[in-house]
Design a protein that fits this description.
With 246 residues, this protein is α/β, with parallel strands linked by helices. Helix content is 35%, strand content 16%. A four-stranded parallel β-sheet has the order 2-1-3-4, sandwiched between helices. It has a three-stranded antiparallel β-sheet with strand order 5-7-6.
Amino acid sequence: MNYKRCQYIVEGECEEQLINALKVEPILINPGKIKVHNIIQEEIPRRDVNMIKEGTRVVFVFDTDVEKTDILLKNIAHVKKYVSQVKVLLLAQVLNFEDEIARATDVKKAQDLTRSSSVRDFKSAICKMKVDEFRNSLERHHLDVSVLWTKKPLNSFSSVIQNEKNINNDLLINPLHGRSKSKYEPLWRYIKDKAPSILTFDEVERVCGFPIDHSFLNAKKELEAYGYKVGKISMKEKTVRIEECD
């Protein structure tokens, strides 16, 4: 397979570990060198920019929990100015690394991936893992790589990130890896993200794109993998009660 030349510039060690894990066989992301640099807080040194080869896809990975884009925009401009035929891809973590992990797997909170008591302990644990160990952990929790970096930030970063199509075309090797075949997957992810206690049938149809039917009764057990379960279904009131798993 002919891979596209990439240079990853990531915010921290956790992001570095994730990119390396996605490069483990079967490869899910274009291989490339990784440099840790906080592009939101610090300008990339000119010597580092000059070392990027012509025609490279430069991939920035960063959090969006601090509304600060001035230095990011400078870094984008410098790379485009000094590197010929470069393409810059912006992978915005909304709001941060742990949020991306929770959305792309079946855990309710990122720290559940390592059974850590806090986000700090979770980050420490994954940074200490071997790369293939981290990849195996992600796979055990049903990693859906197509979900990573696709949530759109609503803050000042919204004007600088690219859409899902750019990521799939220019970065991911197999965007369908790990994607569930259940037609109710969008609903399970909606429940995991919003944590509603009750859903109307109309809401289910809006999220899924089709009206609720008898297949829902067979599929409802799937929701438990996302930390929730289906409670009472009222045909009279046309509602579905949602409960957290014990």
